[in-house]
From TrEMBL:
InterPro entries: 4Fe4S_Fe-S-bd, 4Fe4S_Fe_S_CS, NADH_quinone_OxRdtase_chainI. Residues 37-66, 79-108 form the 4Fe-4S ferredoxin-type domain. [4Fe-4S] cluster 2 binds at C56, C88, C91, C94. It is an enzyme of class 7 (translocase). The gene is nuoI. This is NADH-quinone oxidoreductase subunit I. NDH-1 shuttles electrons from NADH, via FMN and iron-sulfur (Fe-S) centers, to quinones in the respiratory chain. The immediate electron acceptor for the enzyme in this species is believed to be ubiquinone. Couples the redox reaction to proton translocation (for every two electrons transferred, four hydrogen ions are translocated across the cytoplasmic membrane), and thus conserves the redox energy in a proton gradient. SUPFAM superfamilies: 4Fe-4S ferredoxins. One of its GO terms (molecular function) is iron ion binding. It is found in: Cell membrane. It is a peripheral membrane protein.
Length: 151
């Protein structure tokens, strides 16, 4: 009988404590600001310097560009930008070397898919990934509000 009372006492004591579980699928977990999540890519800022491709340790980035169509302007125009998230380790090196900050990390982390082919993301998909952009990068992005969402 004493064991039953002791067990109920422990149960009643723990019922008053705050819950430690999260309602994960319904409510996303808040991530710290320095979390390395899926990249956001702004093709308007990209100068096709290929530094992100050269520094990538897994060679998961594909970047191609073409000569600027206006002969009076120098440089290149971006043609394609693809990331293979099947092998991407989200190391943040591509965002560190980008001179124009065309690539920035976000706090988004959900990439679960049924097919490996769906892990190949193109320039349009990465550009639409504009939620939860790191706060430190929002200072340089005129089209993003402080929370990372578009104005």
């Amino acid at each position: 009988m004493r064991g039953l009372v002791k067990g109920l006492g422990i149960t009643l004591k723990n019922m008053t404590k705050p819950s430690v579980t999260h309602r994960y699928p319904d409510v996303p977990l808040p991530m710290p600001d320095r979390f390395r999540g899926i990249q956001y890519f702004d093709p308007d800022l990209c100068i096709v310097c290929n530094q992100c491709v050269r520094i990538c340790p897994t060679d998961c980035i594909t970047l191609t560009g073409k000569k600027h169509p206006d002969p009076e302007k120098k440089g290149k125009v971006i043609d394609t930008y693809d990331i293979n998230f099947e092998i991407c380790i989200l190391c943040d090196l591509c965002t560190e070397v980008c001179p124009t900050e065309a690539i920035v990390m976000t706090n988004n982390y959900e990439l679960a898919v049924y097919s490996r082919d769906d892990l190949f993301k193109n320039m349009e998909w990465l550009h639409q990934n504009d939620e939860n952009v790191r706060k430190e990068n929002n200072l340089n992005k005129p089209n993003l509000a402080p929370g990372g969402n578009k104005k």
